[in-house]
TrEMBL record:
Protein name: Glycosyl transferase
The keyword Kinase is annotated on this UniProt entry: no
Region (Disordered): 99-145
Organism: Microbacterium insulae
One Gene Ontology term of the molecular function aspect: transferase activity
Record keyword Transmembrane present: yes
Length: 620
């Protein structure tokens, strides 16, 4: 019976091990699925829609093969389409039947105005034709627009001859593939998805089969042992002769007859047991090797979700302009370009990444450094760590981003505004200021939601953004007598304190030597650059404005002349060292405020500011 159980165990073990091995070999499907993309007409760009990328669950691996440099980038589908709106490209989408198809997209022709010049003479028509031909020739000579380094892309890749990019993109994203924007895009493109083909019972079957095999081996050994013990005569034996002691001294006697057999059997039995145990150990070791995690059932308890703050997205709000990694990359590019422009004092280079009042202040600095060798270089643009990113939630253009950087080395914080004019333009820095040490930022929307931008004349704020600079200027000029004084928080307003102290010191110094022959007056007024506003959580907004402070020096005596003996800065900007009519010097302030919502009991708070000299002129 023991042999029967041993055989049954062997059979069961073979079935279990065979089933487990079969699940990991002949019955296991492929690890990946691949979609090949082809196009019948060449185009400089190939766009793979998010619907294609999400045909199957899991991460995507993009492979593109061609000659030379291959470029790939991904971004929001609407942004990619906007960037390609004026050129031809191949679009890869999923048809209604679930098939991947490629279509050549041509740019839309601009709408032609109504024909109101039907009566024009032939000479005018010929001139228009010549102008059109010249424009076409100029367009043909213009270099192709390269997608490399565009601020629209969330990430980009570049490799030679073959490009492999791991992706995990949702439906709203698309991938752009190109070479240099002129040559046709690679046509050998595939997307690979992993297939979940885990065999959770392969491991238990193989290991269980090994255990059953070990039990079968033990049963087989016990059966053999029992059979050997049961061997012997089945009938009564004959009487044995009387034994006599053997004389060991007799030479040639058979000395090993009685004791040799048992010893031999013990040795043989011991050797067979060792031989039988070794296969069991070896088989068990082999069974436990090669079983990866997907060959076992995964038993994981469902974690208890932790409570998080609820953020309500307003209905109909559009997507945020950038992500945080994208903003970090854009800011680094801006800082590198501005650093190069500062080193070379190149205003044109600076204009590629600066705009508005930030560019105006830099231009003045370059002019002064060209005239005054030891004039200070402007502070570098801070880039990291990027603590706050608040993008505008807007699908169109222009679109903006507010960012705050806390620099660990200089122990300073910088608040700035970045703006992109259109889909092809780079982001430019238009406002930048230093945050005050005691600044408490209001509650802001998370970067993945973004915030809307209030209109310049918004009536939902304590004061409209377009009126903020004039109100604050009035407070600087009139102090407590200003009608807007009670709207602004005076405590902690370092800008007002600095302006007041500086003006009084300069006025005292002027009166000591020139009060009888001249006058020094001060005034503040809104700058020429438009305000920027972005909403906060509590129905308020962070508003950046430009304010100009103007110093005017005039002679009060007809015979007096204003001389700039110790003022090389004004002398360099005005282009004169004396004037009978006087000088005006303008400083520009970039000022950030928190403006509460209409009806709030809070006051308008200064968040940060920066001041730079803007220009100096001779009064005419």
């Amino acid at each position: 019976m023991r042999f029967v159980w041993a055989v049954a165990a062997f059979v069961l073990a073979a079935v279990m091990i065979g089933a487990g091995v079969a699940q990991r070999t002949i019955f296991q499907g492929p690890d990946t699925t691949v979609a090949s993309i082809s196009s019948s007409e060449p185009a400089p760009y190939l766009v793979i829609d998010g619907s294609v990328l999400n045909q199957y669950a899991g991460s995507q691996t993009l492979r593109a093969q061609g000659e030379g440099e291959i470029f790939a980038a991904y971004g929001r589908t609407a942004d990619v389409q906007a960037w390609l709106s004026d050129t031809s490209y191949n679009s890869v989408t999923v048809s209604g039947s679930g098939q991947v198809e490629t279509e050549l997209i041509e740019p839309e022709a601009p709408a032609e105005p109504a024909d109101e010049a039907a009566a024009e003479d032939a000479a005018a028509e010929d001139a228009a034709a010549e102008d059109a031909a010249a424009e076409e020739a100029a367009a043909e000579e213009a270099p192709a627009r390269s997608p490399v380094g565009s601020d629209l892309w969330l990430d980009e890749f570049a490799q030679s001859d073959i490009l492999i990019a791991p992706l995990q993109l949702p439906e709203g994203m698309s991938v752009l593939i190109a070479s240099d924007g002129d040559a046709p895009a690679p046509t050998t493109v595939t997307i690979t998805w992993p297939i979940q083909n885990a065999t959770p019972w392969a491991g238990p079957l193989i290991v269980g089969g090994g255990i059953v095999l070990a039990i079968g081996v033990m049963l087989y050994i016990l059966a053999i042992r029992h059979a050997r013990r049961a061997r012997g005569p089945r009938r009564k034996g004959l009487p044995l002769p009387v034994t006599e002691p053997i004389d060991l001294a007799v030479e040639g006697a058979d000395k090993g007859v009685i004791s040799s057999t048992p010893s031999t059997r013990r040795a043989v039995g011991s050797g067979r047991r060792a031989f039988a145990v070794l296969p069991v150990v070896a088989v068990s070791a082999l069974l436990f090797t090669g079983c990866s995690a997907d060959a076992w059932p995964q038993f994981s308890a469902t974690p208890t979700p932790s409570p998080t703050a609820t953020v309500v997205v307003p209905e109909g709000q559009q997507a945020p302009a950038v992500t945080k990694p994208q903003a970090e990359r854009i800011l680094a590019r801006i800082a590198d370009t501005v650093a190069d422009a500062d080193a070379e004092m190149d205003e044109k280079l600076a204009a590629t990444r600066l705009d508005g009042v930030a560019l105006a202040a830099r231009s003045t600095n370059y002019a002064l450094r060209g005239a005054i060798p030891d004039y200070a270089v402007p502070p570098a643009i801070l880039t990291k760590p990027l603590e706050i990113v608040l993008p505008q939630a807007y699908d169109g253009w222009p679109r903006s981003v507010m960012a705050v950087v806390d620099d660990d080395e200089t122990k300073t914080s910088s608040i700035m505004v970045l703006t992109q004019a259109d889909a092809w333009a780079p982001y430019k820095l238009s406002y930048v200021a230093s945050l005050e040490a005691s600044t408490t930022m209001p509650d802001l929307h998370p970067v993945y939601i973004g915030a809307v931008q209030p209109a310049p004349n918004s009536q939902f704020l304590a004061i409209a953004p377009e009126d903020l600079a004039a109100a604050y200027s009035d407070i600087i000029n009139k102090g407590e007598d200003s009608e807007f004084y009670d709207m602004f928080e005076a405590e902690g307003d370092e800008l007002r304190e600095r302006i007041a102290v500086d003006r009084q010191a300069r006025l005292d110094e002027f009166n000591q030597t020139a009060s009888q022959t001249g006058s020094l007056t001060f005034s503040s007024s809104p700058g020429t650059f438009p305000p920027f506003a972005i909403a906060t959580v509590e129905s308020g907004a962070i508003v950046a404005v430009n304010i100009n402070e103007t110093d005017t020096v005039k002679p009060t005596n007809e015979d007096a002349v204003i001389k700039l003996e110790n003022n090389a800065t004004v002398k360099a900007l005005a282009g004169a060292d004396q004037s009978a009519t006087g000088f005006t010097t303008t400083f520009t302030d970039q000022v950030f405020f928190y403006v509460p919502g209409q009806g709030s009991t809070e006051k308008i708070r200064l968040l940060g500011y920066s001041s730079d000299i803007l220009n100096a002129k001779v009064i005419k």
